[in-house]
């Protein structure tokens, strides 16, 4: 008969596996949704660019280097993506008052309007999707997502410690 500590470790490991699986499903669906949202903003918008527009809207004016750091890409990648957003008329540049050599990114009026319409449509879809949930569950989901997002923004994921329930080498084996 397994020891209680072994059972607790196996249950904890199973819970983490379930979270990992559900996050994978969520991320795949979120990627597809982001691509659709981008097309709603502008038919020529690249799939990853919607997230850039949302971030620029939230923190503008923003330096391209800060935007690159936030989304985890290099300066060359962000430069290419921002150029496309500028060519589509969704993002503009303004001088950085603290550094004459630098510039800051802002949404254009057109970019703000298009993003606003796409967000309104997304919010309606989300409302319809969660309409059957009790309000308490919706608030709980929001709190848990906020907590998870805050954790991942401030702490890089730590590798599992050998021998811990999170250590893949300690995974329970199937018969």
UniProtKB/TrEMBL annotation:
One biological process term in Gene Ontology: response to stress
Database matches in PROSITE patterns: HTH_MARR_1, HTH_MARR_2
Keywords: DNA-binding, Transcription, Transcription regulation
Gene3D superfamilies: Winged helix-like DNA-binding domain superfamily/Winged helix DNA-binding domain
Domain of life: Bacteria
Keyword Nuclease: no
Family annotation (SMART domains): HTH_MARR (SM00347)
Entry-linked InterPro entries: ArsR-like_HTH, HTH_MarR-typ, MarR/SlyA-like, Tscrpt_reg_MarR-type_CS, WH-like_DNA-bd_sf, WH_DNA-bd_sf
Disordered: annotated span: 152-175
Residues annotated as transmembrane: none
Residue ranges of domain HTH marR-type in the record: 20-150
GO molecular function: DNA binding; DNA-binding transcription factor activity
PANTHER family: MARR-FAMILY TRANSCRIPTIONAL REGULATOR (PTHR33164:SF57), TRANSCRIPTIONAL REGULATOR, MARR FAMILY (PTHR33164)
Protein name: Transcriptional regulator
């Amino acid at each position: 008969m397994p020891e209680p500590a072994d059972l607790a470790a196996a249950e904890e490991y199973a819970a983490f596996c379930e979270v990992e699986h559900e996050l994978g499903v969520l991320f795949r669906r979120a990627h597809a949704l982001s691509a659709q949202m981008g097309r709603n903003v502008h038919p020529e918008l690249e799939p990853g660019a919607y997230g850039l527009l949302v971030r620029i809207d939230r923190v503008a004016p923003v330096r391209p280097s800060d935007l690159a750091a936030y989304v985890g890409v290099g300066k060359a990648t962000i430069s290419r993506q921002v150029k496309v957003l500028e060519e589509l008329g969704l993002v503009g540049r303004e001088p950085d008052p603290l550094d004459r050599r630098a510039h800051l990114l802002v949404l254009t009026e057109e970019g703000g309007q298009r993003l606003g319409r796409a967000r309104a449509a997304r919010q309606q879809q989300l409302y319809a999707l969660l309409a059957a949930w009790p309000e308490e569950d919706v608030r709980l989901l929001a709190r848990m997502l906020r907590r998870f997002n805050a954790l991942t923004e401030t702490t890089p994921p730590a590798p599992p410690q050998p021998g811990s329930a999170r250590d893949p080498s300690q995974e329970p084996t199937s018969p």
